Amino acid sequence: MVNKYVELLHKFNIHEKLNDDEIIPRLEHFIDSKITMIRPGIYRFEKSNAVLTVNFIKRECKDEIKPTNESYGKSWIFNFKGDNILEFTTAPILNF
């Protein structure tokens, strides 16, 4: 049976290696996002309010909720096993 994350990556035309026991947390939430290859092995999936950066070299991903004028942003870094490595908050955007 094919890993469901490999199937999702193939829908994005991304053919990076992913082991059977590896996952990419929240990838399914970025189906209709803009995809950019930052450099080989590193991809950015962007929606209006969130960004998912997947790093196949380090085997981790960063999920970011963008800050707004009214609210703080929030970010999580996960490894490909689904473990939360780091969580942090970013300040709201200040318009002067």
Summed up, the helix count is: 1
Number of strands: 6
Largest sheet: 6 strands, antiparallel
Rg from Cα: 14 Å
| SS content category | mainly beta
Shape, please?
globular
What percentage of the residues does DSSP assign to strands (E)?
35-45%
Number of folding domains? 1
The separation of the N and C termini measures 54 Å
Biggest sheet, strands in spatial order?
1-2-3-4-5-6
**Which percent bin holds the helix content?**
under 10%
Secondary-structure map with pairings?
Elements: H1 4-11, E1 34-39, E2 42-46, E3 50-55, E4 60-65, E5 73-79, E6 84-90
Antiparallel strand pairs: 1-2, 2-3, 3-4, 4-5, 5-6
Note down, in words, how this protein is organized:
With 96 residues, the chain is mainly β. It has one domain. The chain has one helix at residues 4-11, and strands at residues 34-39, 42-46, 50-55, 60-65, 73-79, 84-90. It has a 6-stranded antiparallel beta sheet with strand order 1-2-3-4-5-6, with no helix packed on it. The chain is globular and about 45 Å long. It starts with a helix and ends in a 6-residue tail after the last strand. The model has no long low-confidence stretch (mean pLDDT 92).
Give a quick rundown of the structure.
The protein is 8% helix and 39% strand. The protein is mostly beta strands.
